[in-house]
Amino acid sequence: MTKEYTQSAIELLQRLISIPSVSRDEQAAADQLQQTMESYGLSPRREGNNLWVENKGCTDGLPTILLNAHIDTVRPVASWSRNPYTAEIEDGKLFGLGSNDCGGGLVSLLQVFRFLSGRPQHYNLIYLASAEEEVSGTNGICRVLPLLPSVDVAIVGEPTGMQPAIAEKGLMVIDLIAKGKSGHAARSEGVNAIYKMLDDLTWLRDYRFKRVSELLGPTLMNVTMVNAGTQHNVVPDKCTAVVDIRTNELYNNEEVLRFIQSHVSCEVHARSTRLSSSHISMEHPIIRKCKEMGMKPFGSPTLSDQAQMTFPSLKLGPGESARSHSANEYIFVSEIDDAIKKYIQLLDGFVF
């Protein structure tokens, strides 16, 4: 029943891999995807490099399911030993940049949309291919969501080994600034900005947030960059640091930001607070159906477009997260075939 859809998915993925689509440069790949969707008889809408299509005959009063995956990729790392833009199949593996993250989910969900939208369902269905996911860009999914009908639940096709990730950590990056006064190091003149920051760095290293998630573990803070000084004999008048914060679903980013500001002496500025942790109840009907199918819900440490969704969502897609952003990235052809079958089993005739 799904053999034709699997073949179409593989052929489309090979075409997409051959087109460089690094974040913020997805136009050519979006053009290819749009042409393919139109060749299927679909009428996609486009906003920038984001594409979406709704099932024909959307019915008021029915819940809506969103199928989402992203078009863009990271840049290839230097250790690739093959051409990242040549989609070769060897020993059942389809190699190529973006094959696993998340081309497999992108093409599988499109075929699933084709199948499901051709049959009567108890819900409305939207397929959305989004841009700028890898950089959480403002011209990605957040540009499109206000244009969509109200969504009741979303499936995000990130690689999860087709197990449902029912929670994922949020991300907040903050900048610390300590200001001192320059002076000659030989005379210990001035106020050393590095020393002013030391206590704050120690607190950031040692503090443990009290609310620990069963799915995601603790909220984590890591100081990842520190910069100060101009030369060896000048007392630095400024020290800056960057902190990577991964919040669990028991905290929101604004709350964590205020807490940090109240405990350090440095200036604290968040680059953004919009990439929140997400969580869907274990008792949600779609998660109950996943469990009935033998799937095992888990919590994911990696960020996705779920962070910008205000409605319930889960990650569920072919491939494995450990392959993402790696040299010689690949996905098994069998994983795409399995994904299409499981998506259909999950959603065909699904009732909220």
Overall mean confidence score, pLDDT: 96
Instruction: Describe the global form.
Output: elongated
H/E series:
HHEEEEEHEHEEEEHEEEHEEHEEEH
| Helix segment tally | 8
Can you describe what's shown?
The protein has 352 residues and is α+β, with helices and mostly antiparallel strands. The protein is 28% helix and 23% strand. The strands form five sheets. Strands 1-2-6-3-7-17 form a six-stranded mixed β-sheet. The protein has a four-stranded antiparallel β-sheet with strand order 11-13-9-14, covered by helices on one side. The protein has a three-stranded antiparallel β-sheet with strand order 4-5-18. Helix 1 (3-17) crosses helix 3 (99-117), helix 1 packs across helix 8 (333-347) and helix 3 packs parallel to helix 8. The longest helix has 19 residues, at 99-117. The chain is elongated and about 80 Å long. The model has no long low-confidence stretch (mean pLDDT 96).
Topology:
Blueprint: H1 3-17, H2 27-39, E1 45-47, E2 50-54, E3 64-70, E4 89-90, E5 93-95, H3 99-117, E6 124-130, H4 141-144, E7 153-156, E8 165-168, E9 172-179, E10 183-184, H5 193-206, E11 220-228, E12 234-235, E13 238-246, H6 253-261, E14 267-270, E15 278-279, H7 285-292, E16 298-300, E17 313-315, E18 330-332, H8 333-347
Parallel strand pairs: 3-6, 3-7, 7-17, 8-16
Antiparallel strand pairs: 1-2, 2-6, 4-5, 5-18, 8-15, 9-13, 9-14, 10-12, 11-13
Brief overview:
By secondary structure, this protein is an alpha+beta fold. 28% of the residues lie in helices and 23% in strands.
